[in-house]
Amino acid sequence: TRVQFENNNEVGVFARLTNSYCLVGIGGSENFYSVFESELADHVPVIHASIAGCRIIGRLCVGNSKGLLLPNTTTDQEMLHIRNSLPDSVVVQVSQPILIAACLDVRY
After folding, report:
1. Distance (Å) of CA 59 to CA 11, 41, 42, 88
2. How many other C-beta atoms are found inside a 10 Å radius of the C-beta of residue 104?
3. Chain mean position to CA 45
């Protein structure tokens, strides 16, 4: 299924998908969310969230099935929402942006 976020094909900017969860940025069209939910909801939780008030969560965090690193600009409310929505097995930590950038180059 093809999906766009406000006429933008770069959906990875607005979403972070692992085999344990899917984070999607808030503020997209209902069609954007419905594609993720219809394809993934039976397998992983689809979580609507923002990071530092932004929707480009795919670029602001890094994660895999075991953990998620968020930038230190993440608000406490955003952190709690994300942590409470993820499976208990996923460790969520707030980190300095340089560590997140370094992790983008790591392959698991």
Report:
1. 10, 22, 25, 23
2. 10
3. 11
In sequence order, what are the beta bridge partners of 51? 54
Cβ atoms of 74 and 51 within 8 Å: the answer is: yes
Assess whether pLDDT exceeds 70 at residue 102.
Answer: no
Q: Which domains does the chain have, with CATH numbers?
A: 11-103 (3.75.10.10)
| Encoded tokens for 87 | 């499976």
The distance of Cα 24 from the centroid of its chain, to the nearest Å, equals 5
Give 26-78 pLDDT, tens digit per residue: 876 677 778 878 888 889 999 999 999 998 999 999 999 999 999 999 999 99
